[in-house]
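Module 6 notes. Inverse folding takes a fixed backbone as the condition and produces residue identities as the prediction. Think of it as a translation problem where the source language is geometry and the target language is the twenty amino acids. Below is one complete input and output pair. Work through it position by position during the lab.
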């Protein structure tokens, strides 16, 4: 039977409602969690606590909506086996880089070597797509394309692709206050809401490439110090259809929510520069699909399909742990359709948002089982 709305929304869990002082940004973005911006992730400390509560030691955990890889990274830190699925190719690239076992010495040597060659003017700029022509100033575009040609010859090409994407994001012709979803290229000076003065769009990318290459070395080295040697799999595809490499002891995930975020579009620059395959038609809950009755119906069916596939890949007593802000009360029906029974739920208070997306809200943790 489906859970009632009161059942879903009971119990504020103060242990999970960290304040800014308890959990400063530096901790929330520790090591590889800040390798590249990603809108819509959950925080590593929440995942650590969910593992502690719901996953047996040295067990196996699955995240069917793995996104930027928070679950997988924390599974490595907690000594769990893990697998993550995502429909968006860039997210899978980012996860592979975050979770990979890099040899710190050769990684640092090679990244510094590529940087030195870039600074000597090596590499070929080559042709740009219309998007790249429109969204970057001429110098920034040449910097990025030249770096790309050096990255492609490298042994650590994927790491350098992530550095390239991060620099491209910062170097787009945007305003400082619209980095998440800039509506159109900003070609001239503009009044900046963030800095309260006139600002100009970026013209170069070389300083970002240098800064992010060095930051990436530091972050991957910091993670290597806490990363345990456990199997981790990143699967690119639609979680409704993929064969999942179970059995798992738990699912820990935060699904997309309907009409909020376009997960492909937020990294459009990366798809364009890296030639990644765009599978947005299979993306569940994309903002572009809106929140009409038909869109919500498709969302409910889609998420239920994913959870059903996950349930089939789990050990009999395994728990499905879902973090969601279910304003529309869709999850009672989703769980029922997926053949899952709600066992427990708790809420956490989230009040740390800064900038123009400010605002506090509640997140619910649903714990279900077959
Ligand atoms: C809320 S985000 C997950 C964020 C993740 N918890 C993190 O911390 O990075 C939801 C993810 O679901 C992915 N997604 C959407 N539809 C999907 C599908 N059909 N199969 C697999 N992944 C999908 C999106 O690409 C997005 O990365």
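Target side of the pair, the amino acids:
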């Amino acid at each position: 039977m489906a859970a009632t709305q009161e059942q879903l929304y009971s119990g504020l869990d103060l242990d999970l409602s960290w304040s800014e002082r308890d959990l400063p940004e530096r901790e929330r973005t520790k090591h590889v969690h800040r390798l590249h911006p990603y809108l819509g992730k959950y925080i590593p400390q929440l995942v650590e606590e969910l593992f502690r509560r719901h996953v047996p030691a040295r067990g196996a955990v699955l995240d069917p909506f793995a996104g930027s890889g928070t679950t997988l990274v924390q599974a490595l830190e907690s000594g769990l086996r893990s697998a993550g699925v995502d429909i968006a190719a860039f997210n899978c690239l980012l996860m592979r880089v975050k979770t990979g076992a890099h040899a710190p010495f050769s990684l640092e040597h090679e990244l510094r070597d590529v940087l030195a060659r870039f600074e000597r003017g090596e590499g070929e700029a080559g042709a740009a797509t219309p998007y790249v022509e429109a969204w970057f100033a001429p110098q920034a575009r040449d910097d990025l394309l030249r770096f790309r040609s050096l990255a492609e010859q490298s042994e650590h090409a994927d790491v350098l692709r992530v550095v390239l994407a991060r620099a491209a994001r910062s170097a787009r012709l945007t305003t400082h206050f619209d980095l998440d979803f800039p509506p159109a290229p900003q070609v001239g000076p503009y009044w900046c809401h963030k800095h309260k003065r006139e600002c100009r769009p970026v013209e170069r990318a070389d300083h970002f490439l240098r800064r992010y290459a060095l930051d990436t070395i530091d972050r991957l080295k910091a993670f290597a110090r806490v990363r345990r040697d456990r199997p981790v799999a990143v699967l690119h595809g639609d979680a409704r259809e993929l064969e999942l490499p179970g059995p798992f002891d738990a699912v820990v995930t935060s699904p997309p929510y309907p009409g909020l975020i376009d997960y492909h579009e937020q990294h459009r620059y990366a798809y364009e520069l890296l030639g990644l395959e765009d599978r947005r038609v299979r993306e569940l809950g994309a903002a572009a699909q809106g929140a009409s009755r038909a869109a919500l119906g498709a969302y409910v069916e889609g998420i239920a399909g994913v959870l059903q596939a996950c349930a089939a890949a789990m050990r009999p007593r395994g728990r499905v742990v879902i973090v969601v802000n279910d304003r529309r009360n869709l999850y009672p029906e989703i769980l029922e359709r997926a053949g899952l029974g709600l066992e427990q739920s708790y809420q956490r208070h989230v009040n740390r948002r800064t900038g123009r997306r400010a605002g506090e809200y509640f997140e619910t943790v649903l714990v279900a089982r077959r």
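Reference fact for the lab report: The first strand starts at residue 60 and ends at 63.
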